[in-house]
Batch of 3 targets.
Target 1
Amino acid sequence: MFVSEGLQDVAITGQDWIKETCADVEMLQDLEYGKIRLVVAVPKSFATNSITDLMEDLWSKGRNFRVSTEYLNIAAEYIKSNPAYQKRFGDAEPLIVTPWWRKGSNTRAKIFLSFGATEAKPPENSDCIIDVTETGSTIEANNLKIIDTVMRSSAVLIANKTALRDPEKKEKIYDILTLLKGVVDGSKRIHIFVNVKKSNLQKLLAELPALKNPTIAPLADENWCSVNTIIEKDHLIELLPKIRKLAQGIVVYEPRQVLALDQITRRETDKCPSKPG
């Protein structure tokens, strides 16, 4: 919210909280860590395995459907989008209950703000929870089971949209973006070196389309050269048989950063005004 309101220019946060707060920010880079799922979980003792069946069962018995969560807005949107809810209540807003205020009119679907230990709320204080999980172990330990995934989230780099229209601030923000993107890209790629006979060089390049712009250097033996380049880590096993037939002496290491300066500059120049001069 600080970034959205212009109190801060740049920050790292979770995609889940951007959606929950409806923050009007620019998402610059998925940092690909802090990966979680926002899930719906119910007690294992419940026979139901779907949110629709759970709601219908409660309503048919004249009971209210109760949710405990920290994600009030996401939960309300999720419940309202359910066809069973829409069939019964149309566009009515679920009732959101906090210690300070209430919002919404439909008392048949209540969303309670949870203050920690959300997993402990069912079944006495809620019929289900909407909470984050990374491995599911905490949910399992509290005798709950996951019946749906509301969304997936990870850490992202965000910026204030007004700040990005300021030439000086934009340059500093994209310096940060360049460094963080380099770490993300570096974690997914590897640097390989291979020695190849010059007579096999073109065959090697043709077999390995990943080697679009490799660095090629001569060796002490004028009939051989060295080829080094960056490839996707997941492609190494697939490429090894081809490399073995045409080259020798492969060396592999993981770079800490891969800085794609041209890609960032080209992409972002189209989105934001360039610095004068």
Target 2
Amino acid sequence: MRNTLLATAASLAFASTAYAQVSVGNPMAMTGPIPDLVAPMAAAVDLAAQHVNEQGGLFADGQAYEIIRADSACDPVAAVDAVTKLINVNGVSALIGPVCSGATIAQAESVSIPAGVVTLSVSASSPAISTMEDGTDLVFRTAASDAYQGVALAELTMAKGIKDIAVSYANDDYNAALAATFAKEFEAMGGTITANEAHEPNKASYRAEVATLGSTSDNLALFAYYGSGGITIMRNALETAAFETYIGADGMLSDEVIDQLGAENLGGATFTTSASDDTTASFAAWKAAADAAGVPASDPFVPNAYDAAFMMALAIEKAGSGDRDGIAAALRSIANEPGEHILPGEWAKAKEILAGGGDIHYMGAAGPQDFDANGDVAGFFSKSEVVDGAWMAEIIK
């Protein structure tokens, strides 16, 4: 009987150790206006968790790094609902995501900041995120603010010899803020904004809007999500040859645009997005791991998504537990100097250094992930144009 009790106790102890884990919430826009952009981003998050768990897991007892995904749908209301469940029901230690700016702002203001939970967004880029916290230090992101992308896009437009342009933007946090930054910078460089109009997403037709904008310029700066109006606006414009040139950003950079509109019709389209410096050792390490896993290494925000998930694990390891209170300080510690450089995938190396009391400095797949006072990173940008039927990217800043 005694031996049976001992065996049972040993089995229970083994089971509790084997299934010990730290859970992190991952609100991602798996549905909504940009699912094709988000799917590889989610795969990158999963790859980061795989690297952690394959190389010993978290802490000395090898706890599992668990990603609990929820659909934030690129929608503020859906994001609040998803994050409320992740925090209050699933009890997650921190958040990786959301994807879209409006969703990120809504859930942070309503749920995660009041709960004292760190948000590390993989792609939210609205400038409003930089100043929304009021000193709480609970919101970070691995993608650069559109305060930088708007400048890069204005410079690109001027470099193309475009002196006047009409602007159409979807009435949401991301697209409206980016359009405002672009227009301000373009005018400061001597350009003329001939029209600057908001449009409502998900309309069946934008022919009236296109006719109005097209009467003011041959060029259109389009700030929209491809799945909630962007493709329809471009289709209506192409049908009437309203514009010769189209300029835009991340929300339009999808293969779905080519599939729906035809590569032969997109010779005048150029879209920018957050990018990675592919000349670095950190990108080489990331690309090797991504290629092996079948994850597209250079797709928009995919390396940023990997960085967010890997950095959150490093922060939890640095903090020594999944307690919410210690994660923000630990995240700053592993992201910024000083410390021994850690490349994507080098979990075992990082874990050993931290166990010995050393410092680490993560070198991101998407580039340097050093956080400033607002939790922002500088980042790089690329321009993408259709070449031989596919998007071809080139670093511009």
Target 3
Amino acid sequence: MALKKAFHELTSRGKAGRLRLMARKALEQYDLKVSRIRLISNDMNGIFRIDTHGGAKYILRVALPAGGHSVANLRSEMIWLQALAQDTQLSIPQPLAARDGRWVIEVAVEGVPEPRLCMIFGWVPGGDLANHISVVNMTKLGRLSAELHVHAAGFESPPSFDILRFDKVFPFPEPVVLFDDAHSHLFPDGRREIYRQAVDWAQSAIDALQAAGEPMRVIHGDLHQWNVRWYRGLLSPIDFEDMMWGWPVQDIAVTLYHLWQHPQYPALRQAFQRGYQTHSLWPERYPGEIDAFIAARAAGMVNFVIQNNDPAWEIDLVEYSEKAARQLRALLDQRH
């Protein structure tokens, strides 16, 4: 029997229902006695909580095909998570292999127009760190960031390891549309020039890192307060999907970008740095280096949002680009 609606015509709830079919099909490849499947989120990837009859809990991710991550990229994510689980005491979502040893399962079902990649991780308890922002917790987050960077510095990747590289301002495979004429209406009053200056600044910072010969290492790439769980004071990083080869200053900039609008930002930034320095040297080589990569994150977010046509986001693009331009101007004005 043919389905009545195409996938793109469905509501968010309707889409989640079809992704649930994918989750069920993927679970056939695992030795899990499943008692319940619950949707956690469908904002980007489809995220499901899996409960088993034995009481164990897992997370199953149905990856968004437009996310730009290949099977090799996602397999590499699982490889680093496994190494972190073996080599550190960090609380992380431990990867679970399928019955045949695969980390990533490709699944296709009727009603979803393309196959999707599914992965399972151990459950990490707690809520978003975003609901527990404090100087104390930012100190803990700084140390957590340093622990990830220290481990990455000694991590020996296998030949099959394949992830993105943050050697350019826009590291993801989506096209750069910020400067296309088709989007000029989003950048009135010379606003586009602010973006050009910010991108040039960030690229100069990348060029300086490369010229200095500092080796790249694996970085989380998306370590912000919605990708860290807080449970009874313990912080656990999650969602390593955007991990890439890069430098610690780039990773730190992502964290700080998402705290930048907080009214206590200066104190939170200082606390993060103090926590980082309890485990490693602060990696910023000159004043403003991290700010250049905060600018890169701001430009990258606008470039992403322009292309995201998901109506659930309901973003006013003109207002969004204007707000980002104000942030970029503030960063540019305080350059050393």
